[in-house]
Each structure stands twice: as C-alpha cells, then as structure tokens.
Amino acid sequence: MADHPDVFISSTIEDLQPFREAAEKAAIRAGFHPVMMEYFLPGGGRVPYKRCMDEVDPCDVLVVIVAPRYGWIPEDQPGRKDR
Q1: Count of CB atoms within 10 A of residue 2's CB?
Q2: How does residue 21 score in pLDDT terms, banded at 50, 70 and 90?
Q3: Buried b (16+ CB within 10 A) or exposed e, 15-40
Q4: Which residue range is the domain that position 31 belongs to?
Q5: pLDDT class for 37, splitting at 50, 70, 90?
Q6: Looking at the domain assignment, is residue 70 inside a domain?
Q7: Distance linking the first and last C-alpha atoms of the chain
C-alpha cells in the first residue's frame, strides 16, 4: 500500500453527484487518494467496462454508492435481466 492508499468511488454520476463529491472530500480528509470516473472520462463519452475495471483493480478500497437507479449492467454479465 502506498503512502496514500487509492480508493475507487463508484456510482451513477448524474443523480448522485453531491454524494460523489462528499465521498471524494471524505476520502481526501482520511488520507486516501480518490480515483473516480470523472478523472478519466473522455469528453462526453461513456467509459468502457474494461477501462473501469482496469482503474478499479489496483485500488486498495472500493466504495460503491447505490441508489434506486442502480446504474448500468454490461451485456456480458451473468444474471443480467433485460429491461
């Protein structure tokens, strides 16, 4: 673990932005280095699933913020139910 452990903060973005910002600030206050999609999101594009997993993998902690929207489920995931 580095001097500042990495924490990946995951959630849907549009509906949970205030919670994401609060989690980011809390992580920094606690001495963690936050890793968030906003840091690597291409201009207006959707980040591919593999890219997200590549960013999560080296992190020391994963924080998932869940709300009624739940987010996106990749088509190749087991148990996916089309809506």
Answers
A1: 8
A2: very high
A3: ebeeebeebbeebeeeebebbbbeee
A4: 6-64
A5: confident
A6: no
A7: 41
Residue 29: inside a domain, yes or no?
A: yes
Selected residue with higher pLDDT from 38 and 24: 24
Residue with tokens 């869940």: 66
- Say how far apart CA 63 and CA 66 lie, in whole Å: 10
| Domain assignment of residue 77, yes or no | no
Locus of tokens 């999101």:
41
* Number of domains composing the chain: 1
The reported pTM is 0.73
What pLDDT, on a 0 to 100 scale, did the predictor assign at position 68? 78
Residue 41 is assigned to a structural domain of this protein: yes
